[in-house]
Structures are given as structure tokens and as C-alpha cells.
Histidinol-phosphate aminotransferase
Amino acid sequence: LFSSGLDEMIALICRTFLEVGDESLQPWPTYPEYQLQAAIAGATTVNAAVTPATGLIDLDDLAAHITAKTKVIWLCNPNNPTGTYLPISQIAQFMKRVPADVLVVVDEAYIDFVADVPNPSALSLVTQFNNLLVMRTFSKLYGLANFRVGFSIVPQRVIAKMQNVRLPYNISGISQTAALAAWQDQAFTQTVKQQLLTARQQWSAFFEANHIQHYASQTNFMLYQVADPQALGAFLKQHGYLVRDSMVPGWIRQSFGTPAQDAEMRQLLL
Ligand SMILES: Cc1ncc(COP(=O)(O)O)c(C=O)c1O
């Protein structure tokens, strides 16, 4: 099922499956749109934990927060903003603890950036669990954020319900053409991914060498701890670099740039 970016998909899921009295459950911190759209649909949003030492979503805590009112669980993998990735075997184990009438949404917006994992996607679980949905977007590795193309692999059981709610003309022909062209140019995306992996290794080495607390990222950004994020954010902005300085208190989320930009930023951070 296609949508005008994943933000429309998130709104569509909330509109289809949530109403007043329901609970929408997610780890925190995660992508804030789940909370926002669930609240707009009238549901109560419930937060479970991310392990502070590793930034990994705590699946035991997530399972512990399921109640009779839980209707949707959001699992961003890799997670934004921590950048951390959970192996699919752990998600499969988690699914066994989720009641069959609760929909689990695995948001794989950043899955294309995962390295050194043979089959990183939860796609294969959609045929095993008919309450699991996987979301993907053309906004990240494919660089088409402004064309607004997202899609979900949806279990047969719920697809008709979502199709009923989806706006009939949600993606333009131009966006479809752009997405198809990008999808077919895998040589280009592999080049981009290689550049990204080099940047990630360099940032990782930089944070290690300078003893800056950070999480192991499997994405195109990193979350790192600083004494005063707002002051550092303002300083970087003066030099032309925009970072997220108020997403997680005490931490900065920063995307990777070109090699020259990254080198300049590292100088600024020292
Ligand atoms: C985890 C995650 N999911 C979904 C989205 C929405 O992506 P889009 O609506 O551009 O497809 C984003 C965008 O930043 C994101 O970080």
C-alpha cells in the first residue's frame, strides 16, 4: 500500500485503527509523529523505555506496557533518533508476546543504511504474523523526500480496512515515476550507501577518540551527548550546520554530510 510519504501512512494507520479510549504504545525516544497522529485520532499515547546505556529499544519493557486497551505498537528499526538497530530474531520473539488483535508497525525508514546484517528487514515476518506491518520510504537512501513516496507491506487481514481509509489519489504520477527510476538505479544507491558507511565509520572513530558518549548507529545520523546541546547547536548554526539540539535532552542528533563538511564539523566540535 502506497502513501504520500510515511507521515501519511502513520496518519492513515492511526485513523484506521485508533479511537478514543485506545492506547498507542511506543518506546521513547522515537519518531515523534506516532505520538502526534495517535493523539489526533483520540488515543492515549503510552511510552516504554529505551535502554539508556545502549540506546536500544527495551522489548521487555515494551511488552510490559501492553494492556487490554493497546491497539497499535510502533517499532522504529533502526530507531530515530538513537540510530540503533534490533535484530529481526528479537522482533520475532517479541511478536509472540503481542496479542493477535494488536497491530505492530515496524518503521524501516532507515533500513537501507544497515550494514553487516545479511537480512536486516522484518519483511519476512509479515507472512508469519498477520498483525505485523512493515513501512518503507523513498525519503532516505533514495533521496526523494520532497516527492513524498512511502509504502507498507500489510498483512492481508487488514489491507482492505486501510484501503477504505486511504485517499484515492494520494501519490502523483510524477512522484511514482521518480520513485520507480530511483528504485531501478540500484548502482547509484549502493554508491551512496558506501559513502555513507565511510562517513559513519569516521564519525564513530571521532566520538571514540574524543570520549564523547554516543550510540552505535545503523543510520545516516548519530546521537551524541554534550553538556549544552542548545549552545552547541547555536554555535554550529553560525557556521552553517543545522543539527537537532532539542530532540533528546542532553543529546544532539546530527546527520552525516559530505567528506569536506564532516571534516569541518569535527574541527568545530573539538
Ligand atoms: C523513522 C521515520 N519514519 C518516517 C519518517 C517520515 O518519512 P516520509 O514521510 O518522508 O516518508 C521519518 C522522517 O524523518 C522518519 O525518521
Observations:
- The beta strands are 2-3, 23-28, 44-49, 70-76, 103-107, 132-137, 150-153, 221-225, 251-255.
- The domain at 186-269 is CATH 3.90.1150.10 (Aspartate Aminotransferase, domain 1).
